[in-house]
Amino acid sequence: MSHAASPSATGQRSFWQRNQQTLAPWLFLAPGILFFAFYVIFPVVQSFNLSVYDWDGLGEARYVGLRNYEDLYWEWVDRDAFYVSLKNNLIWLVLYLAAIPAGLFIALFLNQTVAGIRLYKSLFFFPFVISQVVVGLVFTWFYDPAFGLLNVVLGWFGMGPVNMLGDENLVTYGVILAGLWPQTAYCMILYLTGLNAVDPEQIEAGRLDGAKGWRMLWHVVLPQLRPATFIAFVVTIIGALRSFDLISIMTGGGPFGSSRVLAYYMFEVALSEYGFRMGYGAAIAVVLFLIMMIFIVFFLRSMYRDEKRG
Amino acid sequence: MRFTTKAMIVALTSTTLLAGPVSAELTGDLRIFLDTSNPAPRATMEAMIGRFQEQHPGLNIETTVIDREAYKTQIRNFLTANTPDVATWYAANRMRPYVEAGLFEDVSDLWAEPAIADNLASTKGALTIDGKQWGVPYTYYQWGVYYRADIYNELGLSEPANWDEEKANCAKIVASGRACYAIGTKFLWTAGGWFDYLNMRTNGFDYHMQLLQGKASWESDETRATFANWRELIDMGGFLENHQSYSWQEALPFMVNGEAAAYLMGNFAVAPLREAGLTDDQLDFYQFPMINPDVAMAEDAPTDTFHIPANAANKEAAREFLRFVVSAEEQTEINNGKNLGQLPVNAQSSVDDDKFLNQGFAMLSSNSPGGVAQFFDRDAPAEMAKVAMEGFQEFMLKPDELDRILAKLERARGRIYQ
After folding, report:
1. Nearest to B208 by CA among B140, B286, B297
2. Strands of chain A, DSSP E
3. Residues from chain B contacting residue A78 (CB–CB below 8 Å)
4. CB B335 within 8 A of CB B117
């Protein structure tokens, strides 16, 4: 269109008219970029900066160099709070992934046409809708050593009472189990939408070729669910790394700090009733950020590749 | 005669002049922040502020009540920005960060006034940092052992006077299938109360304070002796099982149901125990027994306080409010059984006629020669308190790990008190 314009007209066109095509996307992106810069990038930089200071949130901040990281290192060597938090974060990362296959199988199970299937789907999705606080409380009561349902059920099988949230070796698994309940529902809903998009002709073709059961699932259905699997991975890993609410509600990090994860430890050190060490908290946040960064880079790369291919 | 009349007139004028500034009309806004969010204390405070308002109709009082737990973190924000004129907090080390950051107003002038200097002397130490006073107390309460008198009678036990009697009692209670002590350590501080008493009885008040201020070692023989005493009760099975899963309130039913015979707690535990149906015949109180006869008895008596933030706008009205709060009449009123149910800080006020308040008052005024501590997490710096109380909980569950726990606390001491 612009090529069709006469030379004299081109000279009169304003800067805006000339650059409209290039500027418009930036203008539309501007609010988002601005907010992202101000609420994400800027605080990240600030946290990095804060992590080399000793600051109680009230008085003067004192520059201490890498002291905070050194303290973290010694906590690691001494098998202290930081070590426990990091270890629990890894357990969370690995076990939380169980939500993906669990969600897939529930989705496959629910992906049929029976009377009232919508109701069943809603019921399975229910835990994701209710607040994490409620999930935490329900599971706390479930595990309660005095009147909890868990010990009643274990009693039927002649198994001993366990104090899930009071035992330093079991507590993290207990909390993860509570977290898996809503997370499985989330993965399920992702797969249910994914299953809607599975091509029935390919299933048909597979069936003609004699595929069924596991082989059908593995070679025909799953490849088509790849986008859903990818999203499920992303939300589950991010969810595992930022696990905080359940720990805060169910155990408060206890007993004696054995269910802490990095996010909770950071909160305790910097922001809780007994916390005054903003710099130390920031150092923990930086470590958590770097761990998350590994996954974020991985995800961004595979997304970028997919985009290019598409 | 003329002379006397003249003297009288002079006297009258001078008193009027003296009274003048006090009754001068206060104007402007007075913003009060309270952490008394439980229903009963909240009503008490609001009624008290109502009476203050009646005396000063020209003052526009605005009261904000904040949830007690949330208050502990919010105070850091509101002391620096959008500051109230009066705020509640806690005495001793717990106020130190704000004093050192210059966020609390020095109110030594109030403490120099005879009405306060003469009547509040007993709590002055708890409000003093660097020789100045930074607030006024409004209530305090005793700690001690609340026990089921009916269970003690059934087993033929009497209130223990020393550690041997204590252990003998506990052995009999355990043999009857009960726990000696209800306790819920989920939020850690309850274990701090146990350590306070065991350490003050084993090593005395002064050593306890040295330890909490970082001047004594966690790995010293004295400290180890405290833990050895503690361990005797743990090994006996004296404490409620699974205490790490309960808050202090969640441990109360065990005492009410008779599954635990006693509870080392603050006086605030009496109200819920009575509400749960225990009568005053079933519930009684004794002072934590003597362990080491060579050290004087000392007690925990946490004090709750009012402060004027340094950035407050209406400090004149705030000072008047503080004077009002600690006055003998108000102290009698707000601490009576219908209100806070605790001990008044003013020596001129009267203690409500309540079994536990009377015993507590008698104990603190005549049987605590060693000193009065605030509480573990108010006397020790917050960070140390957190690490240590976590260690106490771990010790109560795994007493064999004591060496490792103490080493950890000693390392924390090296870092925190530099």
Report:
1. B297
2. 53-54, 62-63
3. 408, 411
4. no
pTM as predicted:
0.83
Residues of A in contact with B244 (CB under 8 A): 163, 166, 254-256
CA pair distance B11, A305, nearest whole angstrom: 95
Mutate to test the interface with A, among B244, B250, B403 (most CBs of A within 10 A): B244
B238 in Cβ contact with B179 (< 8 Å): yes
Give, in degrees to the nearest 5, the angle at Cα A162 between A157 and A167: 155
Nearest to B64 by CA among B41, B34, B44, B29: B34
- Give residue for tokens 């991975």: A233
pLDDT tens-place string over residues A220-270 = 888 888 889 989 998 999 889 888 999 999 988 878 889 999 999 999 888
pLDDT tens for residues A7-32? 445 557 888 888 888 899 999 999 99
What SS3 string covers A10-75? HHHCCHHHHHHHHHHHHHHHHHHHHHHHHHHHHHHHHHHHHCCEECCCCCCCEECCCHHHHHHHHH
* DSSP code at position B159: -
B-chain residue closest to A267, CA distance: B73
Task: For the beta carbon of residue B91, count every other beta carbon within 10 angstroms.
Answer: 27
Interface test with B, best of A144, A150, A256 (most B CBs within 10 A): A256
Which residue in A has a C-alpha nearest to residue B191's C-alpha? A256
Task: Name the residue among B69, B118, B83, B89 with its Cα closest to residue B347.
Answer: B118
Residue among B79, B244, B408 minimizing CB distance to A254 = B244
Q: Which residues contact B416 (CB under 8 A, 6 or more apart)?
A: B214, B381, B383, B384, B387
ipTM: 0.80
* Cα-based distances in Å from B56 to A119, A190, B46, B137, B320: 63, 64, 15, 22, 10
CA distance A127 to B25: 59
Whether B404 has its CB under 8 Å from any CB of chain A: the answer is: no
Helix (H) or strand (E) holding B62: strand B59-65
- Whether A99 and A237 have beta carbons less than 8 Å apart is answered as no
